[in-house]
Amino acid sequence: MSAPVSPPGTTLPAKGPVMLLTVGGSAEPLISAIRALGPRFVRFAVTVSVGNTKGSITMLEGETGIPSQSGLNAACWDHVVVPHDDPDRTFAILRESLQALQARYPDAELIADYTGGTKSMSAALLNAVVAVPGVQAQFMVGKRPDLNRVQSGPEQP
């Protein structure tokens, strides 16, 4: 659960919520969630690339990655790897991750955001929220002008 080195960004507050976000192929709503809540720490749930299947971990890389665009410095985030399509195993990993975040930040509000990622990741995260008392679930609501994609920009937690 370690983060690659990110370019220096804005240091987040010592107080504030802690977030666990599922990551898919769209960065904008996750960046909006981070900016809206101003968390002290963010953990991203990602998949790795396997063969020809690109993993969502690529959304964390470089200057165009979610952490850099959100103003997170390397000490304010990390990631946990989950399988592509195994909701049972993903549930176990995310439940353990939420429990570890609660232990690390006992005074913080813990928010699990299921805006990004696969359906399997969302289902697993929501089940993990139910299994770990005190965790709140959220997603980013945006305008959907068609069935293809949510309009970028006006998202709200």
Question: Which structural category fits the helices and strands?
Answer: alpha/beta
Spatial strand order of the main sheet: 3-2-1-4-5
Mean pLDDT: 85
Rg computed from alpha carbons, rounded to a whole number of angstroms = 14 Å
- How much of the sequence lies in strands comes to 15-25%
Order of helices and strands: EHEHEHEHE
Keywords:
15% strand; globular; five-stranded parallel β-sheet; 157 residues; disordered N terminus
Can you describe this structure?
This protein has 157 residues and is α/β, with parallel strands linked by helices. It is built from four helices and five strands; from the N terminus they run E-H-E-H-E-H-E-H-E. It has helices at residues 28-37, 66-70, 87-104, 119-131, and strands at 18-22, 41-46, 77-81, 110-113, 135-138. Strands 3-2-1-4-5 form a five-stranded parallel β-sheet, with helices on both faces. Helix 4 links the parallel strand 4 (110-113) and strand 5. Helix 3 (87-104) packs across helix 4. The protein starts with 17 loop residues before the first strand and ends in a 19-residue tail after the last strand.
